[in-house]
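Q: Hand in one record:
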Amino acid sequence: MKTFTALFKQNLLAFLILISIAGIPPVTFGIEPIGTIGQPIPEQHAFLNNETIVRVVPTHIQVINVKTGAVTDEFGERTRYSSVVFSPTAEHLAILNRTINSLMTTVNIWDVNNRQLIARWEIAARISDDETAFSPTQPIFATAIAREIHLWNWQNGETIGKLIREDLPSDRAMVFSKDGRHLIVAANNSKLELWNIETRSLEAQFVGENVSSAEELVISPDDTTIAMYTLNSGSFYAWDFNTQQMLWHKGGGTGHVVAIAFSSDSRHLYVANRTSALQGNGKGGWRGWDDQVRVWDVKSGQQIDTFGSEFRSLKSMTLSPNGKTAILHYQDAVVLWDVEKRKQLKVWTDYISGWDNALTPDGRSLVSVSRNSIKAWDISSQQMRLFTSVENSLFREFSISPDGQKLAVGRDPWIEVRDLQTGKVVTQFKYHQGITDITFSSSGKWVAVRRHSNIQLFNVENPEMNQIVSTGDAPDIDISSYFTFSENDEYLAASTRTYNNQGWQYWILLWKREGDIFHFQYTWQAPKLDSFSYSRAAFVSDANGSIVLAVPRREEIQIWELLPDNPQLATTLEVGFPVHFSPDGWYLLGEQDRILQIWNWQTNTQIDHQPISEYFDLSQNGAVLASYDDSGQIQIWDATKLLPPQPQPTAVEPKGKKFVTLGQIKRNQLLQNFPNPFNPETWIPFRLADERHVTIRIYTPTGKLVRSLSPGILSAGDWDGRNDKGEPVSSGVYLYTINTGDFSATRKMLIRK
C-alpha cells in the first residue's frame, strides 16, 4: 500500500509540513475586536442563597448579587457542548464537558461558595444534565449510562456502585430523596421506581396512570410528595412519597410545562407554563403566548394563584430558598420576580436573543430580532438603546433600510415599517400569513416579500401603490426564496427551486427595472444550490462595469456575469456563505469551516488577514464586521483594517511566454491537514504554482499566535520538514494559515488528546 507521502509525490505537486504542536507564550497577532455587543447568553439559574444567584452562560459560571443585579464573580470553564448540573442547595455543581463526536464526558465538580475545583474525572459515555442527580446528604453523584445508573463519589471521582435493571431506559429523569437514602427514577415501563441507595435494590414502584417522557422530577422539602412533568406537554403529576400512590394528575388546557418547584413549606407546587393562546377578532386571529406561573395546592390539587410578567416565551423558573423571589427566564429577558408583592425587582435584557442579527448599513448599530422582541445596540458605546416587545402575534423576518433609520418586519397579518430609534410603527402593509423573506430595495423605496408564488413590492412612501412581480413562464417563487436588489434598484434577483423525479432543481430568476416597473429578464439553473436558502446573493460591478451576481453555496460561491440575454459563469471561489462584497467591489467575504475568508474575486486571490471565526455580517459602508463568539455575544471588528486598499491595475506583457488554457494554469492551494483530528502530529499539505517563500502560522480561534513555521523558499516538489518540539498545548480547535507572496489561505484543525 502506498504511503500518504508517496501518494502526494505521485499525484500532486505539493508540500507537506509535519508539525507537532508545541506550546509557547501566545502573542497578539493582527487586530483585536473594537467592541463586544450584549452580555453572555443566560442558560440556567440557581439560588445559592436568598441574596446570591448562580447563572450558567455558554463559556463559564457567573455569580450575581440579587440586590444590585451585578456580576460579582466568574469561574469554571465550559466547552461548546457541555451542560451543568446543580446540587439541591447549589453549593456544588458539575460541569459536564464533551465534544460533539466524542463518547467521553469530563466531569468537573466545583465548590460554588469558594469557587474551587474539587474533582475532575472522565466517564466513557455521553452524559447529559437530565440524566444526573446530586445526593443532598452524601458526596454521591448519579449518572445514567445505558441500562445502568452509576453512583460516583464526587469528591474523588471513584465509582461506589451502580443500579441495574433490564428495562431502565437510556434517557431518564431522577431525583434523590431529601434524606439521601433513596433515588427516584422515571423508568422505561412508564412508572416511577424507588431505589435504595445503601442496598442498591429496587424497593417499590409508584402506582398510578402511565406516564412517559419524564422531563423533570422534584421532591418536596418535607420528603412527602413527588412531582413531575412530561416532555412537550401540559401534563404534570403528584405522588405521595411514602405510599407511592398518585395524588392527582393535571393535563391539557395549560400549555407546555417548562419547570416545576415546591414552595419552602411544601404546601404549594409552582408550575411554569408556556401557553399558546388564540387572540384577535375571531376571524382567523393570530397566535400569541400567555406565559404564566400557576400555583397549585399540593393537598387538594386545586389551582390557587397565577403570576407572571409581560414578557413572552417562558423557558424556566427558579425559586429562592425562602420562596419570596423567583427567576423567570424568558427568551428575551430574565426577570427577578417578587412573589409576595407581584412585581419585577430586576430585569436583564442585554443579551442576544434573536434568531437573526444584522448591522445597519452605516455600521453604527446592530439589530437583533426574535419572535418576541426587537433589540438594538449602539456600536460606539456598545450599549443597548432599544428594546421593543411584541404584542399579540410574533415577529417574523426583517430588513434594515439603506439609511439605517427604519426596520421592515413581518408580524402577521402585517408588514410593519418601524422607526429604529423609537421602535414605533410608522407605516404598515396588510399581508397574508407566512412571510419567509423581507428585504428593502437598495434605494429604500420598496419592500419586497414573497406573495404565494410571486414577489410583491410595497412602496414605502405610498403604501397603496404596490406591484406583483411575476415570473412569467419561469419557475414559481417558493418558500425557500431569498431576494436581492442591485445598486439603484436596477436589477432584482431571486432564488427558487422545483422538484421532479430527479430531485430538487435550483434556479436563479432576474428582473430589470424600467421606471417603477420590474420586468422579467430570464432564469437559469444553478447546479447543486444545496444551501442557497441560508444566505442572500449579492450584486456588484466588475472592473469593466458589468453587473455580476454572487450566488452562495455551502462550500463555494458562483459569480455570474449578467449579460443582456443570458448569464455567464465568471468564476467559482472555494468559499461558502454568507457572502458580502467590499464597498469598492474588489473583495468578496465568505466563510470556510466557519472561518472568514477574503478574496480578490477578479483575480481569484485569497487575501491574508486576521483569522476570525463565525463572521456573519459586513456593514454596507465597509466600516464594521460582526462575528459571534463562544459566549453568544457579538464581536465588532474594524473592517477597514481587514480589507486591503483597491488594487491598482498593472499592464502585463506576454514576453514570449506560452499561452495556456484555464485547465493548465497552476494554482496556489492550502489543503486540509491529515489526520484531523490528530495527536500529536499532523501533515499540512499545500500546492505552489512557482518558487516562493513560505510561512505557516498556527492560531487559536481568537487570533492568538501559537507557532510560526518558516521553511523558507521552496520550489515545485515535496518537503517534509518538522517544527521544534516543546510543551504541548491543550486540546481544541486551531487555525493554520499559509503566506507566500500574494497568496494566503486559512483552514481549521482539531487537536484531540
Notes: The mean pLDDT is 83.
